[in-house]
């Protein structure tokens, strides 16, 4: 791992590099799920329709599904934002009692010339560094239910599973192929 140039080796936040990276990765997964669930749902529904031969019956529907998928992908790219380091630290800090990571970024406001105040400040920072050392990265929690109140993502995935089981999965790669009892097999 490459050390960050803005962190010195004696900085207590350097010990949080791995939990911070995992927290930011979880945040990326959450944000990607929130931004791209419509795209994934449309693609799954499109493959399900192809598996059941819907595009062989009505070919313009394929172009409609492709256009809707392109719009959903563009919407997802527009909504997606990479989490910053500060957002990752705040998320990691929110899981710890007493918010020790925020306390480690504080500076001593008064009494810098007093040796007793500096010793007390150093003891406080050591206690906060020990509390922050126990930080564990949270698991991703995309929380898609409020964003998809009609569970369209689950409906599309269920349709895809049914198309894989009961439809013709080979037709998913060639949606214009004929389907049904009169279809000619090659």
Question: Can you characterise this structure?
Answer:
The chain is mainly alpha-helical and 186 residues long. The protein is built from 7 helices and no strands. Helix 1 packs antiparallel against helix 3, helix 1 crosses helix 4 and helix 1 (17-51) packs across helix 7. The longest helix has 35 residues, at 17-51. It is rod-shaped.
Average residue pLDDT: 83
Gross geometry:
rod-shaped
The share of residues in extended strands comes to under 5%
N- to C-terminal distance:
55 Å
Number of strands: 0
Q: Sheet with the most strands? A: none
Radius of gyration: 26 Å
Structural class, by secondary structure, is mainly alpha
Helical fraction equals 55-70%
State the order of secondary-structure elements, H for helix, E for strand. HHHHHHH
Q: Point out poorly predicted stretches.
A: 1-5
Instruction: Report the total helices.
Output: 7
């Amino acid at each position: 791992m490459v050390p960050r140039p803005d962190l010195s080796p004696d900085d207590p936040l350097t010990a949080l590099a791995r939990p911070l990276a995992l927290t930011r990765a979880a945040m990326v997964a959450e944000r990607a799920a929130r931004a791209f669930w419509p795209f994934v749902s449309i693609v799954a529904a499109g493959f399900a329709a192809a598996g059941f031969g819907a595009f062989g019956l009505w070919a313009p529907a394929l172009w409609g599904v492709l256009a809707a998928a392109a719009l959903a992908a563009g919407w997802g790219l527009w909504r997606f934002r990479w989490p910053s380091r500060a957002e990752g630290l705040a998320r990691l800090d929110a899981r710890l009692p007493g918010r020790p990571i925020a306390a480690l970024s504080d500076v001593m406001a008064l009494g810098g010339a007093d040796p007793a105040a500096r010793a007390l400040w150093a003891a406080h920072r050591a206690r906060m560094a020990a509390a922050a050392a126990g930080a564990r990265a949270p698991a991703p929690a995309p929380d898609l239910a409020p964003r998809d109140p009609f569970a369209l993502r689950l409906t599309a995935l269920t349709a895809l599973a049914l198309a894989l089981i009961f439809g013709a999965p080979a037709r998913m790669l060639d949606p214009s192929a004929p389907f049904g009892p009169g279809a000619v097999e090659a």
